[in-house]
Amino acid sequence: MERILKRAAAAVIACAVLLTPAVAYAEPSAQTALPAEESQQQEAPAPINPDAEAGIEGLSYEEALQKSYDTQPETNSIAGWPKGPQVYGCAAIVMDMDSGAVLYGKKVDDKHYPASITKLMTALVALENADMDDEVEFSPASIDILRWDYASIGMKPGEILSLKDAMYGMLLASGNEVAYAIAESVGNKMGIGYDGFIQKMNDRAVELGCTGSNWVNANGLHDDLHYTTAHDMALIASELYKHEEFRTVTQTLNYTIGATNLTDETRAVQQNHKMLWPNHSRYYEYCTGGKTGYTDNSRTTLVTMAENGTLRLAAVVLRDNGNVYDDTRAMFDYVFENFSKVMLKEQAKPEEVRSYTEDGAYVLLPEGIDFSSLEHQISITDEREASGKITFYYEGQNVGSADVTLTPEYIEETTGYTNRMDPSGETEHAQGGQEESGFRLPGWLTAVLIVAAVVLILFALVIIRLQIIRAKRRKRAQMKRRRMRQRQQVQRRPQEQRLRTQRNRKR
């Protein structure tokens, strides 16, 4: 038994040695194999100069206004692309929210101060991490940020709203203390607090593909380090629009927040986006939501969503010194009138693509541009499932993306991973290709397996040890019984001799 115990202990050591390389391999793969320069910590954000990026630094108001209007959208320089309208906004974009196609673009990557359209990013993170009936409590810190000229709905320290009511107060009335309280309360629910919520805004933006944003607060009050781009805001708006709760709130014109734990009176809030009001001169029949913004530093900013029954669009205008609603209407009309869907299932598939995930996948093209003239780029999302995303471009302009199932040949050629499929396109069997590029378990799963193996072996050792102890106890008990029998035999011998003597005498 002692030999068994020693062998089991050796097995524990052997398992640890054999499984250690798997953990060492799996840890780096969990970081998505970033290049060395990208895996390093990002540099701290620096203040921006929006006027310099827009080319209007040092100009008078009138000169800057004219210079911005005269700046042509980059999409107007694309061969065969319809000419879009000139707008006063220093940066502007129209994106198809379903395909990601960018149909109109003017300095879409220039950094500008967002003002209250920041609250769309706040709403996205809140809706993804909380429920509409969760409580939002207003701390003294949420009230202390206010000045007399800041948008507010008059909340008090210690008051509590549901997240639903708070969303109306933030998105319709643009309450700055409400945005702070939402970030703080949802952050506390997530266990990361207000600062952690702000960091989550930055992390989520990166996940969406944003490249020029830096968020330092939840409401858009001016900060030199708080900025975004038109393209980033279009990505954020497109993701937020997927949430039914947001669509309900943003299309509401009037809403009444009921009495609270500290206030008996109700609070009435109204929609600030003028394109949603049917009786307003700025009304736009296709408008389905959006968010306004303004500070002295940002000037007017506006995000607008619109649907015409065929397309769902998001328009963003930053640093607009003219009439932002006229600019937005002109951009929407331009897209609705000049672009139409080209269904991908009706076109020849690129050789890398086995099938499109959604039957309704499409790209958006103007009249006169044929699908065959498009280029494409593929990103692999899961090599085991052969899933990926394809983005089509015309003259470098994104005209739409779609989720796809890729061919096994492309997966193997690109990653070295062998993926066999049945004729229906479903994965039938997958095995590793070359050893250095084959499938490896994720690091966390490998670690769990190691711990489980060690626990099982230790459990086996305990059982073996208990068996050894029981065996020793049985052996000691047997020896004890043997000695007792021996003593009894010694004690019986004189008696037996006397009995034999007595029997002999009787004879």
UniProtKB/TrEMBL annotation:
Transmembrane segments: 444-466
Region (Disordered): 34-53, 416-436, 477-507
Domain of life where this protein originates: Bacteria
Active-site positions on this chain: S116, K119, S174
Domain called Peptidase S11 D-alanyl-D-alanine carboxypeptidase A N-terminal: residue spans: 85-320
Recorded family membership: Belongs to the peptidase S11 family.
Protein name per the record: D-alanyl-D-alanine carboxypeptidase
Annotated source species: Candidatus Mediterraneibacter quadrami
